[in-house]
Design brief:
The protein is α+β, with helices and mostly antiparallel strands and about 650 residues long. The protein has two domains: about 130 residues, no CATH class; about 475 residues, no CATH class. It is built from 16 helices and 28 strands. Strands 11, 12, 15, 16, 17, 20, 21, 22, 23 and 26 form a ten-stranded antiparallel beta sheet that branches. It has a five-stranded antiparallel beta sheet with strand order 2-1-3-4-28, with helices on one face. Strand 21 and strand 22 form a beta hairpin. Helix 1 crosses helix 2, helix 8 runs antiparallel to helix 9 and helix 8 runs antiparallel to helix 10. The protein starts with a helix and ends with a strand.
Length: about 650
Amino acid sequence: MSPRLGSRQHGAIGLMAAGTLAVAMVFMLLALDSGRLYLEKRRLQSIADTAALEAAGRGGLCTPSNTANEYAKENAARNGFTVVAGDNSRGLAVTCGTLPTNASNIRVFVADATKNDAIRVVATRSVMTSLANGIWNMFSGAPVAAQTILSATAVAAAAPPVAQLTIRSSLASVNSANSPLLNLVIGNLLGGSLSLTAAGWNGLLTTNLNLLSYLDQLAIDLKIKAGDYDALLSTAVSARQLLDAAVTILQKNGAVASAVINDLITVKAIAPNTQLLKVGDLLKVATGTPAAALNTSVQLFQLLETVAQLSSSKSAVSAAAQVNIPLVGTVSIQTKVIEPPQMSAIGNPLKAKAGLLNNPRTDQIFVRTAQVRTLVTIDAPIIKVVSGVSSILSGLGTPVSKVVSGLLNLNIPAVVGGVLCLVACNVTDVDINQTLSIYIEAASAQSYVTDYSCATPATKSLTVKTTTSLATLGVGYVDPVTAFSSSAPVTVQPVRLIDFGERYCIVLTLICGPRTAGVGGGLNLKALSTVAAQTNSMLFLPVAEMNATPTYKNAPGTADILYSLGDTLNGLQVTYVPPSGSTPNPANGTVTSALATIISSVVSLVQNVLSPILDPIVNTLLSALGISLGNAEVGANLSCHMGRAYLVI
């Protein structure tokens, strides 16, 4: 019994062993086939990925020239996947298109030969189906195909477009005449005093600073994680820290003259050290902007003036400067930045265009100049010594005598060569008194991106809407306290500019007593001119690439209102004011004619004598602040694909 049972057991074990071995062989074949097919599929996917990345990264097109297909096949060939015409074992299909978002908020590829926002590559390859396929076909009546076609799809998108707007200073150069004004204005905006030479200011004007290096240095100084520019832009900083980072960068750059560095250190020394500013106040960088877009240059003077204006906008005190004019004397100038500038902005023009439809607008690429108020005060003693004023005043004696006689019944003769006053009499004495104020306010000129085109590299363009600054010019009396206390509109009051007085003179007017003011009244002067803001669309075509010198344009259809101060005084108001307590008679023809002569002379006084003095002062001052009234100069850069292409599907 036992021997037979043992023999039966040996047979069963053999059968089990044979079955187990057969199953193991099957699984081994499956593992080998699966692994082989997986590796083939993975290799094919890498071929599709790299081909799509190169075609998108090189800006491949499907029309009019099929460069996308050429770039993809070149890449595949370098990776050992050569596509030969007539060989059905390998294939590479390249399609251009866009990447819209469907109703489920999923990004999908839509073929469009006219667009190259994204490029899809489908790679195919014929491989052996299975190692066991031959064995199966030997015993099966329905043979399995010996070849299997593998397919891999990759969709790559070019890097998003990046655009930059810049508003730069209109000050081209500095000479010895206007360098003291720059010292006073920039120094007072920062809260101190400067004594830079004209050569020093020109050195700051001609020196550029790498923006990326500057931001990286600020991150080190402020202990911000490297590359986290969003956190850096929202970090509190002082004006001194902003300038100190610039000093450090220039010191690392051996090509910058030591004199420029020393001048910047001098400016930094007077800058406030209170952290009232933010790095983002200097420039706006949209979230997601590639670091390569920041690898651009900024003018050192532009950075300095922006920091000074930002510092002034946070201060409750207006900057006051005393300017000495040759042959005239001292003129007081007060300046206050009401709204700080935004000197540069970088972002995605596609998002900026879409953001225009939102309320409030989002993702905008927006720059602006500062809103600045300026008050120029001229004292009467200074006006009197201006060449030409004395001759105008002496020529008013006769018409003033007619006005006073006709309106007030006062017989105050004019002195014409002493003929009318042989022994002793009261004579007309015309004089300028009190103070003359010139008030100028320039609202912010602003510019923002509204559209762009990247159809082809040769025809790429950037469309920008620019609003020139609303400018107001007033002549009269302005309270210096209320002018800078808030952003509310400033009231310009009439000023008693011309006074009709008298003197008691004897011996042919050779000897005269003290002057009696206001006997015949006087003339009040007020001027208020406004240049309305204008909005224009500007097309930058061609437009510079990012990291290159911007393409600059002036806003069309406007002119600098301070080209000639006299030309802006079309709203000049001259009013005769009788002495207090008197009741003037109705004006007759003689009085009316005399008043017209007087008013014409006063207008001539303001336009032809005073404006040539004030024009260069105010123009230089506003240029130092980066402001050109009614004529905003905007710079633009556009790169249709900034950075490397990336896989999206």
